Recover the amino acids of this structure.
């Protein structure tokens, strides 16, 4: 069946939209809101929610056309968690009212989101989490501590997983909420990281009240909702369709082209090996997004994220070796509070250090390999001593 | 469009037909048994595949009796052949076909001869291979050690006499016609007129031969290099898909085995040391599929880049898969009675064939402007 809206139709729509909203003279936010309302934001979202219900792989057509017209973007690196994780979860589990409330300001970049999943005692084993939510009338009262929360200092909203029933095994007693980060009892403290800055935080929740209307999914279904978030996170980090030599390999290639003095035969073969690996990962992500055109991300996204982390670390490591003496200098150890997540910018030393987080955030590489081995290859699961034990009786 | 990286319905149908045939006619035990006979290539299987399913004439236009298909369809056949390490001259015949198709276009008086051969290939009467060492990469400037008289070649078609030797030619043993490169030109020689000596080959399922000419009659086919490198490029693209199929088969077999083999009271596949390596292999294979699909879809200047990427990547993945297959089967994997060795031998040989990964990376460096020095 041919798609209802052809590429040509789509280009026409964008053209008409741009004619009616001149990017040069329209206020940035007005422009983005109008783009959302015209269904030209994330094309695969349903009509009325910023999209046209098109296959995902049409998005580059829109991005290209808007970029060519000099249109303002929504600052995707500032709102990555909202776009990549919160939004697909809200779309999948939110009520109509919730979708109307949250998706538009999220996409337009008016409201930054963060992800309150990890806790001191629950990282890879997210389902062990201890933050308690107790029902009180129309509200829930939440107490606990989250950690490693990227962008919590910028965020207006958070996606939050809590324990609502400690008497059942860990996977069954969780519930998923949207938390207002400005609510009383929410305290955000910076956590400084190996790069010197503090992109992530610890977040303390003390008697925080969340209205039941901000629950996503049923009570006790938090694990299922969180899975949707994590699958989307991995696809988002693993990257969709991007041009050749984007990301870190582009930086490395540029260094090689521009500095004849760094060239060396042994390093050359390593450079080319990584160049090929980057292309292989890029084409695979492209293939995945074509496959996903209609469907939802599955465990394959874990492979993309795993590949991306490994590559970034190898590429940034080689970059330092190429640079030699220059690599011994670092740009800035100041404790900053960045407002974007930046993998590629700044200096070579920064890239090397920041990429160490790539194999930890969003599921460690070891966990991703477990997921591929078990869910794709059907190999036996890890031994789970805690599977049938009520959460409250787990050894800690 | 990124759809080019997926498989079409027609391609999936072709895959099923080939897979069914191979399951029926080329189970690994039969493939292994054949390696110890005087006929390492399976002529019956090749006939069924080549003319029954039409794999021999896939790339040949319909007006010459072929299927008028593209490398994309041929790649699906190659994947299945790789899974079965099937002993058929599909790859060699495909490269010869590409050379003939290019010669047909080159318009120097040899179109009719090329067309006759192409018709013969499509109908299954003729199997052709290029007489070139199997190691040659597409960016080769191959001159060969075959001398030709009279020299220089006159207008084609032009009878000539060839003398000299070409070593390590794949598929020559089953070929009816040899396309012989010599000093920039290509000659057609009837295989029956050459001396073809099979060599003991590391890859027992793709036996190589040394081919000798001694004042052997030939006909001029083309006076240029370009068709030869294009034919080798197509071969390298198709080989990447064969390597993908081989790697997939090794992974499938190994995953099945580690699920059932128990040690220390558990399936060995429950140990993370193995699980993680198999998961990594799966990631590599998913990438091999993307680059292999791209290699058979790309056109223009992108084609040579895409093929070099695919060869550099898929060669390594096939070897990794076959080596893991041997290792994770333990002692069984080291025996003659288990198919793992057939895959290992094919994988390692293929990684050297049509240019090694290092060679492809070096070529790529030139193509994408990342000079070595
Ligand atoms: C830069 C960065 C940003 C982050 N941002 C956020 C965020 O915004 N929101 C959020 O909720 N979290 C965030 N995280 C947290 C991240 O999700 C966790 O750090 C991660 O899930 C690992 O948990 P952990 O740190 O407790 O390590 P652990 O789970 O304690 O792991 C320690 C080591 O053991 C290994 N391991 C654990 N279990 C297994 C197993 N079954 N098999 C094999 N190996 C195993 C791990 O791979 C790791 O190497 C961020 C982390 C980083 C580094």
């Amino acid at each position: 069946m041919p798609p209802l809206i052809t590429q040509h139709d789509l280009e026409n729509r964008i053209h008409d939209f741009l004619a009616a909203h001149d990017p040069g003279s329209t206020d940035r936010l007005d422009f983005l809101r109008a783009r959302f309302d015209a269904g030209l934001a994330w094309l695969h979202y349903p009509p009325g929610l910023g999209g046209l219900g098109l296959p995902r792989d049409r998005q580059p057509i829109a991005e290209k056309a808007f970029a060519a017209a000099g249109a303002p973007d929504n600052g995707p690196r500032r709102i990555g968690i909202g776009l990549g994780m919160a939004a697909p979860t809200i779309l999948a589990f939110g009520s109509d009212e919730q979708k109307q409330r949250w998706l538009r300001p999220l996409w337009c970049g008016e409201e930054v989101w963060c992800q309150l999943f990890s806790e001191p005692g629950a990282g890879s084993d997210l389902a062990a989490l201890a933050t308690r939510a107790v029902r009180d009338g129309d509200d829930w009262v939440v107490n606990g501590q989250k950690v490693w929360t990227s962008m919590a200092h910028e965020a207006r909203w958070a996606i939050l997983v809590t324990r609502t029933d400690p008497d059942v095994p860990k996977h069954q007693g969780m519930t998923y909420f949207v938390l207002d980060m400005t609510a009383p009892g929410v305290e955000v403290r910076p956590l400084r990281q190996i790069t010197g800055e503090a992109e992530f935080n610890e977040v303390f929740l003390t008697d925080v009240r969340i209205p039941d209307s901000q629950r996503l999914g049923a009570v006790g279904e938090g694990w299922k909702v969180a899975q949707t978030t994590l699958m989307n996170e991995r696809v988002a980090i693993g990257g969709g369709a991007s041009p050749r030599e984007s990301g870190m390999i582009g930086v490395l290639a540029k260094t090689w082209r521009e500095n004849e003095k760094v060239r060396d035969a042994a390093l050359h073969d390593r450079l080319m090996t990584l160049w090929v690996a980057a292309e292989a990962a890029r084409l695979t992500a492209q293939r995945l997004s074509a496959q996903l055109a209609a469907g939802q991300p599955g465990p394959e996204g874990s492979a993309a994220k795993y590949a991306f982390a490994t590559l970034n670390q190898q590429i940034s490591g080689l970059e330092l070796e190429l640079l030699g003496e220059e690599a011994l200098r670092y740009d800035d150890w100041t404790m900053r509070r960045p407002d974007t997540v930046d993998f590629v910018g700044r200096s070579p030393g920064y890239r090397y250090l920041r990429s160490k987080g790539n194999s930890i955030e969003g599921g460690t590489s070891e966990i991703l390999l477990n997921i591929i081995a078990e869910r794709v290859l059907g190999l036996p699961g890890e031994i789970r001593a805690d599977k049938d034990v009520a959460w409250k009786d787990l050894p800690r | 469009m990124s759809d080019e990286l997926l498989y079409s319905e027609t391609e999936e149908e072709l895959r099923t037909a080939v897979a069914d045939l191979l399951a029926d006619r080329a189970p690994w035990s039969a493939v292994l048994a054949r390696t110890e006979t005087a006929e390492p290539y399976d002529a019956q299987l090749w006939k069924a595949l080549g003319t029954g399913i039409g794999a021999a004439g896939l790339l040949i236009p319909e007006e010459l009796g072929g299927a008028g298909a593209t490398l994309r369809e041929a790649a699906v056949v190659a994947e299945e052949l790789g899974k079965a390490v099937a002993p058929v001259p599909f790859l060699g015949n495909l490269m010869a076909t590409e050379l003939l198709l290019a010669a047909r276009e080159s318009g120097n008086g040899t179109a009719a001869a090329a067309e006759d051969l192409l018709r013969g290939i499509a109908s299954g009467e003729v199997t052709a291979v290029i007489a070139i060492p199997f190691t040659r990469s597409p960016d080769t400037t191959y001159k060969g050690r075959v001398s030709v008289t009279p020299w220089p070649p006159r207008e084609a078609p032009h009878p000539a006499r060839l003398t000299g030797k070409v070593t390590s030619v794949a598929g020559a043993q089953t070929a009816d016609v040899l396309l012989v490169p010599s000093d920039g030109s290509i000659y057609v020689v009837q295989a029956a007129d050459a001396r073809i000596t099979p060599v003991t080959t590391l890859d027992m399922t793709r036996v190589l031969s040394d081919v000798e000419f001694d004042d052997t009659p030939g006909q001029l086919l083309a006076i240029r290099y370009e068709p030869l490198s294009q034919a080798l490029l197509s071969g390298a693209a198709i080989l990447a898909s064969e390597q993908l199929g081989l790697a997939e088969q090794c992974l499938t077999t190994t995953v099945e085995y580690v699920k059932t083999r128990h040690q220390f009271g558990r399936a060995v596949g429950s140990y993370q040391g193995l699980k993680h390596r198999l998961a990594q292999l799966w990631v590599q294979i998913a990438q091999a599929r993307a680059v292999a699909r791209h290699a058979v879809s790309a056109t223009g200047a992108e084609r040579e880049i895409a093929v070099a990427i695919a060869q550099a990547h898929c060669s390594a993945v096939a070897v990794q898969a076959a080596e893991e297959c041997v290792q994770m089967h333990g002692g069984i994997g080291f025996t003659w009675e288990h198919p793992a060795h057939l895959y290992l031998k094919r994988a390692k040989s293929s990684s050297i064939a049509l240019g090694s990964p290092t060679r492809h990376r070096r070529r790529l460096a030139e193509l994408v402007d990342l000079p070595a020095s």
Remarks:
- The CA atoms of residues 319 and 347 of chain B lie 5 Å apart.
- The beta strands of chain B are 128-130, 146-149, 159-170, 177-182, 185-190, 195-198, 208-222, 262-263, 266-267.
- Chain B touches chain A at residues 1-3, 5-6, 251, 255, 258-259, 266-267, 269-270, 272, 275-276, 278-280, 282-283, 286-291, 293-294, 309, 312-313, 358, 361-362, 364-365, 368-373 (CB under 8 Å).
